[in-house]
Specification:
single chain, 296 residues, alpha+beta, Heat Shock Protein 90, five-stranded mixed sheet, 7 strands, elongated, binds adenosine-5'-triphosphate, binds magnesium ion
Amino acid sequence: MARAIAGLDAALAARLSPLSAARPVAAGRATEALFEEMSRLNNELSTAQRALAKANAELAASNEQKNRLMGMLAHDLRSPLQVIAGFAELLEDRVAGRLDATERSCLERIRESSLFMRHLVEDALSLASLEAGRLRLTRQPVDLALLARRNVAMNAVLAEGKGVAIALEAEEGLPQAMLDSGKTEQVMNNLLSNAIKFSHRGGRVRVGVAAGAEGWQRLSVADEGRGMSEAERARLFQPFTRSGTLGTAGEGTVGLGLYICRTIVEGHGGRIQVDSAPGAGATFTVELPVRGPAEA
Ligand SMILES: Nc1ncnc2c1ncn2[C@@H]1O[C@H](COP(=O)(O)OP(=O)(O)OP(=O)(O)O)[C@@H](O)[C@H]1O
Ligand SMILES: [Mg+2]
């Protein structure tokens, strides 16, 4: 048995010997070729990385320029729009009694459209500053219920025009919260105008302000409108997301409002979420910390 194995070993050694003699040379060349190929690929990779870094820098620069231009344009549009809306309102107040129905409706449409454009301009301005990473919050003690009441009053005409009723339920005696008042109002306005926009005639919108968990306050906006699917919900807070359909009265959709809401709410250290199903309305809930982040 042992002899047989030794014989096998010898036979194997004899068969391998030419190979093992040739191997170092062949292996050496192969390794060299491999190294050359690797170094060529490495060079190509470095060149591609440099090109990518350059393209990225150019993209960032043009994005920055786009934001600046958008910001400037939105800023410049804001004042004349305010003037148009203001004068339309003044005319409605002063001469409405002397106008016939067609003239009154024209005036109303001028005012509504200029308000809608102002809303778009505000969104564009917010987006430009958010993209430039400049969400600056100026916190001050804010009465969330008071803010909600003001916002509901502001949207009353819009809701009436669509035959939608708004009900406000605000908890009494809530402490003031350290929030950016203007930006929190922007969040409310986006949620409330969405609720009206996607409600059917005869629908009801409920705005709620209440205490949340210890140290938190909760704002909710619930409607009985068309609601949304799970797929829609999943991408709701991304910029320029919209389901493709208009509001229930043909209102425009841009898809920026909720992205802006999310950025502002998260900037405050809060959370925003939605509960909805197709045809079953939508409830948006915003939770905000009562104290600023340093004191929280
Ligand atoms: N209450 C709601 N009911 C049903 N769908 C809604 C509701 N709120 C938002 N959506 C859906 O989410 C999309 C995004 O909303 P978002 O507020 O971001 O943009 P928008 O209302 O289309 O435009 P804008 O930038 O003027 O606010 C809407 O286009 C709509 O499809
Ligand atoms: Mg909106």
